[in-house]
Amino acid sequence: MIRYSTPGEIAFSTADGPGSGEGDDTTARNFANLKEKVNQEHDRMDLDSSFCFGCHPGVPCFNDCCSDVNIFLTPFDIIRLKNHLKITSTEFLSKYTVMPVHEKQKHPVIMLKMREDESKACYFVDPEKGCTVYHDRPWACRMFPVGKASPQDSGSEKAFYFLMNEDVCHGWDETKQWTVRQWMEDQNVARWDEEGEKYKDISMHPFLNENELTPQQMDMFYMVCYDIDRFKRFVFDSSLLQRIDIDEKTARKMAKSDALLLDFGYKWLRFSLFHEPVLKPKR
Question: pTM for the full model?
């Protein structure tokens, strides 16, 4: 099974297609095909649409959906996971992620790495206990089996929700009824959605459609969005704060909060890459 998640906006899942070890071009083509399939074949749902579903250790497929799966991570996903594991973002990225590349890619994206054995299981899944990072699990895992399609990707007039009903999943045999709104509240999606919207504003910025980032700009995008601990060194171990007009109180808060530092990072990308006057140089 492959589950694709465009950070903060779209999640697709299908039992067809290659596993996570396939080439980047194949991954890109399958993602495009899945978007087309969702747009044409899936019923559109809103927040008050209902469905029956359940996932717990008693379901015979428990943990099966956590193997051979491609999940794109948001910047907030990475912050939550690396903090849960008590490691740096640099270590997390090196050990638990891969970065697919294809010719039409506008900016770096990060995918969760699967185990390099026959199981191709997620590194964070225990066969008996299930997800060991459940409280801080990624947006795509949190949303499943609900997907969300945006106007940019679906061609529709407004965003809609849809269900990812896979043959491997027996959660559909459960009788507990949910609305989409209730499911998202139960899975604590709101905080991830809030952060995902911020990232979407950066990753779908018009500048990226009109310009090709240089290798140095690609690295800056990667550092700000994914390697937050390296970005922290970039901010606090350089002369940046002496050159940018930012008050000391805000700087102290950024030093203690990865989320606030990421917010500043988005402004830095808008300022340094997209040439927006969202930051002021000191005079």
Answer: 0.85
